[in-house]
Automatic annotation (TrEMBL):
Cofactors named for this entry: [4Fe-4S] cluster; Mo-bis(molybdopterin guanine dinucleotide)
InterPro entries noted in UniProt: Asp_de-COase-like_dom_sf, MopB_CT_YdeP, MoPterin_dinucl-bd_dom, Mopterin_OxRdtase, Mopterin_OxRdtse_a_bac, Prok_molybdopt-oxidoreductase, YdeP_MopB
Taxonomic lineage of the native organism: Bacteria, Pseudomonadati, Pseudomonadota, Gammaproteobacteria, Enterobacterales
The name this protein goes by in its record: Putative formate dehydrogenase oxidoreductase protein
GO cellular component terms, semicolon-separated: membrane; oxidoreductase complex
Source organism of the structure: Proteus myxofaciens ATCC 19692
Biological process (GO), any one: cellular respiration
Amino acid sequence: MSKNKSSIPGVKPYHGPAGGWGALKATAIAVRTQMDAFVAPKTLLNTNQPDGFDCPGCAWPDKEYHSTFQFCENGAKAVTWEATKKRVTPEFLAKNTVSSLLERTDFELEGYGRLTHPLSYDALTDTLQPVTWEHAFQRIGEILRAMPSPDNVEFYTSGRASNEAAYLFQLFAREYGTNNFPDCSNMCHEPTSVGLPQSIGIGKGTVSLDDFDHTQLIIAIGHNPGTNHPRMMGTLHEVARRGVPIVVLNPLKERALERFTDPQSVIEMATYSSTNIASSYYQVKAGGDAATLKGIMKTLIEWDNARGDILDHEFIAEHTLGFEAVIEDLNQTSWQDIESESGLSQADIESVALLYANSPATIITYGMGITQHNKGTANVRLIADLLLMKGNIGKQGAGICPLRGHSNVQGNRTVGITEKPSPEFLQKIEETFGFKPPSKHGHDAVNAMQAMVDGTAKALICLGGNFAVALPDSELSFSAMRKLDLSVHIGTKLNRSHLLTAKETFILPCLGRTELDVQALGRQSITVEDSMSMVHASSGKLTPASRLLKSEPVIVAEMAAATLSYSKTPWIRFTESYDLIRDMIEKTIPGFDNYNQRIRVPGGFRMPLPATERVWNTPTGKAMFSVFEGVKENKDVKGDDVLRLVTIRSHDQYNTTIYALDDRYRGIFGRRDVLFMSDVDLIARRLKEGDKVTIETVSENRKLKLENITVVSFSIAQGTVAAYYPEANVLIPLDYIDKESGTPSYKATPVKVYAQQQQVA
Ligand SMILES: Nc1nc2c(c(=O)[nH]1)N[C@H]1C(S)=C(S)[C@@H](COP(=O)(O)OP(=O)(O)OC[C@H]3O[C@@H](n4cnc5c(=O)[nH]c(N)nc54)[C@H](O)[C@@H]3O)O[C@H]1N2
Ligand SMILES: Nc1nc2c(c(=O)[nH]1)N[C@H]1C(S)=C(S)[C@@H](COP(=O)(O)OP(=O)(O)OC[C@H]3O[C@@H](n4cnc5c(=O)[nH]c(N)nc54)[C@H](O)[C@@H]3O)O[C@H]1N2
Ligand SMILES: [Mo]
């Protein structure tokens, strides 16, 4: 609602464009509160430079490796947060019991700074105490060797880990004997990894940055780049200025998708002007994208029936199978269902169809608004269908563009972090390392937590991340952590998952990406793969936060060596130079030929993407259309007063890492305990902005609720409400998932909202 002032503390509608001077100011604050003023500029200038480090912020690629520093506010926050001068010292930990730390917020916990010593939990004093690395590895090894079965252990990976660390991690777990690889991707783009191989033969996006220079239309669905992929804003800004239409589907009006001032543009900065990003913005209901996409497809087919030249018939005939079933299904899908499920009118949907019909080259970009639903995988396949209808894959300026999460989440999967390894990969591992890796499929993230809940999982080893906080159903997940015999966390900063201690808990502090990594054979680089399948090197420069830190590959290798006493794998030698690890990756995974040479070329190299050449690695050798049954993305929950809750990231957060308590573009300052709601829904509940409410999940068995939340009037689709992740994770049942991919449906929890006093009664 456009108001200039709000009397609610911390609520102040934001009217400017995204980016601009506000972004520069926010960067200055991030630098001032975290870093030494003289180290910061040099550090930031090293981000995404040929001999510098890859930005730990997001997975958007960079255009020219020789270019000047590309300014990005949230990249700067990610870098300064890691390069902070604050430290969690043994003295601090001696004074603060784990129970007292658990009472602090996630913001406070990470805010204490970088971990400096390997730690273990001492139950007698309820504190984390420094231990030697030797002791930690030896004890972890002992406990792991004593496990009844390797399948009692879960090996979690968060997507910031490098290819080298992730490769050693999967090798360790597989030689130990399990495929239990829960990873952050299971909560994120798994529907892409499961859906796209079925549709186009590869689970990755097909566009490159160059395609954005040639595209004639972008449809941006369910992602918020101003906050989460800020370097993408530079690309969208350029595309918009070329006059190319950008259609946005999003229940919330996200300011960066409306207008943006590019901090790189001298003119816009000097004149306080901005560029409109979306040419049209449709506030679809949460979970209404499938209906919208089906509406667009239905329109195209009707027009094509009349004119014959709307679809790419040649492409469909030569390259695809299954289109007839799609036509049949669309004939049976009623406009009434499409309109009620999407919240958009037929006329709106036809306007998008018209743009699409007229565009010779279209890119569809998408994020969590598509994947985190009960039918997330079917959603992704529907996007592929729409593109295939007009031959928009394997054509310049066109393609599918999933916006990945963590900066190396795509690379982790490429190098073997998967609970469902292919027989070819396992064969290569066996040939190369001489042990037989297990072939039985393992646990993904939700399965791993379920195994922890029912007691079959007894140990959890985390390569980064904040497993329990990232997962849904906090009450269940938190108590499951406490039942474990062993938890091990390789991390940079303290978080709640570290503090939900097991019988024995070890926290192993590692180097961050920004830090210098020197091993026996000299200074090391790691490698990462971005959203567009470009693999390149990253090498830190800063002095490590503590002398005791070890790199992630070294920690994994030493843990493996201490656990697998019989192993023939030369674990410690691998850490002398990461080139040796890369040689192993090259030997066992296709696409890494001449790995070590090619990453020494600035910009690196691109992994093979057969779909971009219209080679379809599906069982039929064709791109496959798929039918999305009905129009509902989520289990149908009846009731007039049921709302759909989406959980979102604020502008000042990186997943469970909270940098600060503001969400500038959404007009929230100094707090996170809010629920965004449309005026229509406020009135229907006799609520007014500022009222305190209880949010309750509509669920058959358990009562899940979140109290003391303040409602804020916002431009959001009627029937949809939004709250921040991870606070709202208490409301999401652990089994509320997309069955095809296992991904939690974080974007469509059915809830009821009551005024606080009603709840008490
Ligand atoms: N600064 C920063 N950068 C990040 C992250 C971060 O937390 N902070 N996280 C990283 C990670 S791991 C990821 S996965 C990405 C996440 O990047 P995004 O996918 O942008 O993440 P979300 O905040 O979950 O936002 C989803 C957007 O989808 C919209 N939405 C919600 N439900 C629906 C729906 O049903 N339909 C449609 N059409 N839209 C919907 C929301 O309004 C919101 O604008 O960003 C990565 N980059
Ligand atoms: N409700 C709701 N829940 C969600 C989502 C949502 O949209 N809504 N999104 C989901 C998504 S998309 C994702 S990807 C997951 C994220 O889940 P995770 O990846 O598990 O979570 P992060 O918050 O990114 O992890 C933060 C921690 O990583 C550690 N860390 C930071 N840098 C490094 C490093 O360089 N090395 C190591 N070893 N550790 C490091 C720090 O200790 C820090 O506390 O959350 C999911 N959960
Ligand atoms: Mo993610």
